[in-house]
Amino acid sequence: MAKITDRQMTAKPGNNDKWLSEVAIWGHGSLVARITPSGERLFYFRYSNSSGDRITYPIGTYSRDGLEGTMTLAEAGQRAKELAGLHKAGIRDIREHFTAEEASRIAARDAEFARLSSEKVAIEAEQARQAARKSVTELFEHWAKVDLINRKDKGAEVRRMFEKDVLPFLGSLAVADIKKSHITVVTDAMLARGVNRAAKIAFSLMRQMFRFAVDRDLIEYDPTASIRKAKIGGKDVERDRVLSNEEIRTLAKLAPESGLLPTTEAAIWIALSTCCRIGELLGARWEHLNLIKGSWLIPAENSKNGKPHSVTLSPFAVRQFEYVRAYNGNSAWCYPNTDDSGPVCSKTATKQLGDRQRQPDQGTMSRRSAKAQALLLPGGKWTPHDLRRTGATVMTALGVLPEVAERCLNHTEENKVKRTYQRHSYADEMAAAWQLLGEHLESLTGIDASKRSSCL
Prior knowledge:
456 residues; alpha+beta; hpI Integrase, Chain A; 3 domains; four-stranded antiparallel beta sheet; 18 helices; 48% helix
């Protein structure tokens, strides 16, 4: 005989009423239960009256512990047996059997159920309304704990951007009050500063946060939904800046007089001679370098594609690293932060180089380098990532196969067939390419880092 279980009765409510039933008792009616979307769990006795109509008669509300005013599953089963006995004895309509007083009590109980259900719905609606009244700052903190914490940097870079560019405008506003115009206030302010790419990134992150809120019913719609990303700062333009040989020579002359930190000056030549990402360099630890053998392992946690990358250092690159080590002392990090608790911010070198490439009509920035035009080159502004592109371009110009140069960049092979079946490591070819690049840079620049380090 099929029986309703406590496990079924305590199941999570659905979007519609969920009905459970047992096999009829002696063929004269059965116990049924209903779980409502609001979470009520009610018992009924279902039978057929003298006219053949199916009647569902309420007998109580469920509680596993049988609290006051409720009944357990066993008590409901016993009550159903009593009513089935009355039906078997010839009372075809159970409702007519009860006295007016009992009928009144049942009606009062049903009215109380309806009242409690209405109150529960109202409470849930108020809770949802209050959740939507959370401030954007509170939403950001919720998003950070649930989502951003899973990112490689635990959300540190997103937090930096929001605290600088988003929360000062939106932080104190209620999430439910945010409109499209509020979003564009943030992005317009960034575009006015000329940081178009950062504005696009900020917009994408705001969209992620508000969709997070929609998924959790904190708001009904995403205020960024009707804004096209392409309209924020115009269409993305792929950078193709490559320094010419003459610009590399010029840079070698300008850098020593630019007021850069000596280690940042060395970072220029390391990035150029290894084709590494600047974040990989600034996050490097000495334990991953062997300057005697001329090797550098970029661990998976530091690389963009999550794969370890082995770099063969040319003598030119080794001398730059030796200078950095002599300058920074005994730190475990190649580029330690001020209290030696970790590496410097990955934006440090980019900011230092950018501060020295301002056009004359832009002037200088407060509390930044006074030598605002010290690193300007004929081909226009350049970044640490352009050094990586330049290194790979020089390699191919020197006769290195493009596929080998791509491996030196630690790019993932886009062709799935090649990625699956061509397993050659190209280690020797890559080592030769880095050696060729180092020799070329040494002949262009005439830099001898060993002489600099001997002066420390």
